[in-house]
Write a structure and sequence with these properties.
single chain; Rossmann fold; pyruvate-formate lyase- activating enzyme; seven-stranded mixed β-sheet; 14 helices; 22% strand
């Protein structure tokens, strides 16, 4: 493609979590408003952007690899920009790792992407430019008129706040994002109404800590208030899902709100990180294990069909055999529907790096595998309990004569699927009678029409973005 045709085209690669995806969509929307067109082939773009992840070492290496690949192929008239978390955390080090980067823009002023591109084009010298302000006080107040959402099929991630004020010893998010800043309620409600008008079937509320929403706005029980207001403003969106709840802040009012609002799916993601008091203390996490037992009991009493998802870190510095055994017992006791287990990642800039006893890698990996094997039996039993139920399934793809979708018990990309014979309407909620269970996935038959045999092949499944 000629230089003239490339001039107003951009290529944007988004890495990392759904929160990063929302930032990427927002930057893309600003570029579109400025007259740029997005392209899927980097060769066709004048501006190459990688929205990086810098949370842990493996994510950092993936980001460096993506930037290096584009730098190696970059043409003379192209600009390469490192954006996002790794850019914010490491600044000019990123350019040392990947020569050929023209600009570095962080997480706290992503809304300046268009003037930053223009500034790069006007520069008279080849040295990289940086846009890395320390403060994030304008987050949520200066979004330049773009939706803070990422739409995937019939689902939409809505970011309700940014940053975090929690003191977790293993986490670099406060260094990257800054302290917690809630988005104005009116902005979120306007987005929910717009997404309803667009036919979205599921709102997924995300933040570093969704249960901290409104703290800085002077709202008491801000998350509950937000949920009730969204449900009233967008009554035709059938599913509202809450992710990333912080232990200790799942209040009785929040539980009541989830149990009484018809649109709230009975699903809660509450990353607990460990199940032993001493490990949690070293993590600088809430260590009141009794609270967890009591709160899970409250959630299940209010919503007997609730699916609870959590996350655990194994091999945290100082984790003894006794502490790991305590985590396993915790898992057996509480019987979580879903969880992810991850090995501890050493991060030099976090307080956990100063703990003298670092657990060997082979021990971390063995513990992760053991914990996931324990969970597999629990997950299978939970899925088997769904057999015979008729559940709404949000259809997300089809191919090879089958459709795939999710029940309320499954968040996109991280949980299971339902495999159904036939090609069902994409983006619609379809009643399905569950007739089979695997460790993570289910099979079922459309409630209308005769039952059909199903072949468990996941090839050629089309999942629209």
């Amino acid at each position: 493609m000629s230089k003239h045709k490339q001039k107003k085209h951009f290529y944007l690669l988004s890495l990392g979590c759904s929160k990063n995806t929302v930032d990427s969509e927002s930057m893309a929307a600003l570029l579109h408003k400025a007259g740029f067109a997005g392209v899927t082939d980097p060769d066709d773009a004048s501006v190459l952007i990688v929205n990086t992840c810098g949370f842990i070492e493996s994510a950092r290496q993936e980001s460096i690899g993506a930037l290096q690949e584009l730098a190696d192929l970059k043409q003379k008239n192209q600009l390469l920009i490192a954006a996002g978390c790794m850019a914010q955390r490491y600044g000019d080090e990123v350019v040392q790792w990947v020569p050929g980067i023209d600009g570095v823009i962080g997480t706290r002023r992503w809304m300046d992407i268009v003037p930053f591109v223009r500034k790069l084009r006007r520069r008279k010298h080849p040295e990289p430019l940086y846009h890395l302000p320390d403060e994030a006080t304008t987050v949520g107040l200066d979004e330049r008129g773009v939706l803070r959402t990422a739409v995937q099929g019939a689902s939409a991630y809505v970011k309700i706040s940014d940053g975090c004020r929690r003191p977790c010893a293993f986490c670099a998010i406060p260094q990257i994002k800054g302290t917690h800043v809630s988005r104005p309620l009116d902005s979120i409600i306007a987005e929910a109404a717009a997404l309803q008008a667009a036919g979205v079937q599921e709102l997924i509320l995300i933040a570093q800590d969704t249960t901290d929403y409104g703290h800085d706005l002077g709202l008491k029980n801000g998350t509950s208030h937000l949920l009730r207001t969204i449900a009233k403003a967008a009554p035709d969106i059938p599913w509202i899902r809450l992710m990333y709840a912080y232990p200790g802040y799942v209040t009785d009012e929040l539980i009541e709100t989830m149990a009484t609002l018809p649109q709230m799916v009975h699903y809660l993601d509450i990353p607990l990180q460990h199940g032993h008091r001493e490990t949690l203390k070293r993590m600088r996490r809430p260590a009141n294990i009794e609270w967890v037992y009591q709160t899970v009991d409250k959630l299940r009493s209010a919503m007997p069909d609730i699916a609870i998802r959590t996350t655990f870190i194994v091999g945290y510095p100082g984790e003894t055999d006794e502490e790991f055994a305590g985590l396993k017992q915790f898992v057996r006791d509480l019987q979580f529907d879903r969880f992810g287990a991850f090995t501890y990642s050493y991060e030099a800039s976090t307080p956990s790096a100063t703990v003298a006893w670092q657990v060997p890698e082979e021990v971390k990996e063995a513990r992760r595998d053991e914990l996931m094997q324990l969970q597999q039996a629990i997950s299978l039993a939970k899925n088997q309990a769904q057999v015979g139920r008729v559940l709404p399934v949000l259809v997300e793809g089809y191919g090879d004569g089958v459709s795939v979708g999710r029940t309320y018990r499954d968040a996109p990309e991280i949980d299971g699927l339902v495999i159904i014979p036939g090609e069902l309407p994409l983006g619609q909620l379809v009643p399905v009678r569950i007739d089979g269970a695997m460790t993570y996935d289910l099979t079922g038959q459309p409630e209308t029409g005769p039952a059909q045999p199903i072949t468990l092949s996941m090839s050629n499944i089309t999942i629209p973005l």
